[in-house]
Amino acid sequence: MDKKFLHNILDRVIGGAPLSRDDWRWLLSEGAAPDVADLLRSEASRIATENFGKGVFVRGLIEISSYCRNNCNYCGLRCSNREALRYRLTKEEILDCCREGASLGFNTFVLQGGEDVKQDDAWIVDVVRSIKELFPDKAVTLSVGERSVEGYRAMRKAGADRYLLRHETRSDEHYARLHPSTMSAEKRRASLQTLKSLGFQTGSGMMIGSPYQTMENIVDDLMYLDELRPQMIGIGPFIPAKNTPFAQFPAGSVDLTILVVSLLRLRFQKALIPATTALASIDEQGRERAILAGANVVMPNLSPLDVRSKYSIYDGKKSLGSESAQALDELARRLATIGYHIDFGRGDYNEK
Ligand code: SAH
Ligand code: SF4
Q1: Which residue, of 111, 143, 237, 301, has the fewest CB within 10 Å?
Q2: Which residue from 313, 314, 317, 318 has its CB within 8 A of the most atoms of ligand 1, so it is best to mutate?
């Protein structure tokens, strides 16, 4: 390994310069070596600490529906999965979750769900408005899939602050292998542009190790993120879900996911990067490892207890213990073991 080149890349990226495809390719392949991965992690963590201290923002995650009209090949909620357990929360149930979340100290609520035709744009708008009436100072993040431009606009007008919509993969060919032909990578990217232009703090991201993914695909993803400049970037390992076309594929690599977290932090120094539930679900230390690689957000589950097991986008998804909103003390304890603490602030994106 060319140590000089590693330090050259680090100097450039830390100084804020964009990296070339060759640079990213080099980092992804050389980063497989533990000593290189360690150095990247420690630099990423230093940058995260400079920007955010040792605080980790928390978001209360409310999974509002397990119905979905889409048929993504990787996801347990896909509409062809007849075995999936379906539920949808009412507005009153969602408001109850927010009330509980507020009493636990959360300042951001994330409403996530499948693309449920019964929870249409107007319905989401009404829920956002009601949450904002009750809690005008709290941030509302939506993660309810692809909607119409008019829908996004109305949600923003109703007070939604942020929107999470992963691009999933930048490669059109790879996207087509992960999704039915009714979905398009181009449409997904157009949605992301719209969300940004409407003033949403916008989140994108991808799975690591999804079926047929190559290193070149991840290079494409990193180049695309550089172009999009999202305020939030969510990445997690692919995890197989039963009764889906990808049920027999292996899970993505935790080490590679952690490496990519550190690369994202190096390049997107102010971005909000979660230590995802997917990572915590397949590695007992996944959350802590991501934080030590530069992640600065966790999203404990605030859904009603009786629906949690039904929101099964992949097998073995954690929603209890440190992944549960009701166990913030346990989360705090675990963060303390690595020298971090919960930051209860809203955690808006801040360029400065
Ligand atoms: N319907 C919305 C939100 C729910 S899915 C949407 O699709 O945006 C949220 C994220 O879960 C997806 O973006 C995808 O990247 C991730 N996901 C879905 N299935 C997964 C799996 N099997 N393993 C890991 N992540 C998965
Ligand atoms: Fe639906 Fe989202 Fe799952 Fe795709 S990833 S099937 S849009 S819930």
Answers
A1: 143
A2: 313
Query: Quick one: 51-210+229-252+269-343 is in which CATH superfamily?
Result: Aldolase class I (3.20.20.70)
Q: Where are the domains of the chain?
A: 51-210+229-252+269-343
Residue 278 CB–ligand 1 contact under 6 Å: yes
Q: Are the C-beta atoms of 67 and 90 separated by less than 8 Å? A: no
Residues 6+ apart with CB under 8 A from 22: none
Q: Report yes or no: 302 and 60 within 8 Å, Cβ to Cβ.
A: yes
Q: What is the pLDDT of residues 127-172, one digit of tens each?
A: 999 999 999 999 999 999 999 999 999 999 999 999 999 999 999 9
Choose which residue among 313, 314, 317 to substitute to test ligand 2 binding: the one with the highest number of ligand atoms within 8 A of its C-beta. Answer: 313
> What is the CB neighbour count within 10 angstroms for residue 85?
13
Torsion on CA atoms 258, 263, 267, 268, rounded to nearest 10: -10
Q: Measuring CA to CA, which residue among 94, 88, 90, 161 is closest to residue 134?
A: 94
Residue whose Cα lies nearest atom 4 of ligand 2: it is: 72
